[in-house]
Amino acid sequence: MSREPYEPPTQPVAGQIFDALLMLVLVFITLYLPLLFKLAGAGTTTTEFPNPTWESLGQNATMAAQWEKLGYAPEKAAAIIGTRFDYAFNWTAVAITGLIIVGYFVFMFRYSDRQYRDVIAERFGDGTTPSRKA
Question: What kind and span of H or E run contains 22?
Fold first, then answer.
């Protein structure tokens, strides 16, 4: 007994355009929300230098020469040199992110299970109908 070839569902052009725009909006939101909620780039530590000199800033003669070529005196460079990013690592946020990613893939595989089984049965199976329905 032969099966008819798997025919994936078709989507109209308007639906494809909507999906593409939706993905662009979601990517923009995903990248913008951390900035909006001040979750990205906010962690800095600043070291104050009361009377900055190149030596007190930890700059050697070559470094000082490069700073001066850029138009910076020790007083102006002190604010840049003294500001450091805080690379604190939040294990809770990493765990939540991991759960979201794993949950998304589990959802997608479960949601697409019937289509995957149809394609696999057509290409590699014995021509029988897949036993499990999604």
Answer: helix 13-36
CA distance 76 to 53: 11
- Per residue of the chain (134 residues), give pLDDT as tens: 566 777 778 889 999 999 999 999 999 999 998 888 877 766 778 888 999 999 999 999 999 999 999 999 999 999 999 988 877 778 998 999 999 999 999 999 888 888 888 778 878 876 555 555 44
Contact 47, 84 (CB under 8 A): yes
Compute the distance between CA of residue 33 and CA of residue 39 in angstroms, rounded to an integer: 8
Report whether 129 contacts 3 (CB < 8 A).
yes
Specify the residue for token string 């990517």: 27
Unique residue bearing structure tokens 């001066």: 68
Find out whether 114 and 133 touch, Cβ atoms under 8 Å.
yes
pTM of the predicted structure, to 2 decimals: 0.42
Residue 5 in contact with residue 122, Cβ under 8 Å? Answer: yes
Length of the chain: 134
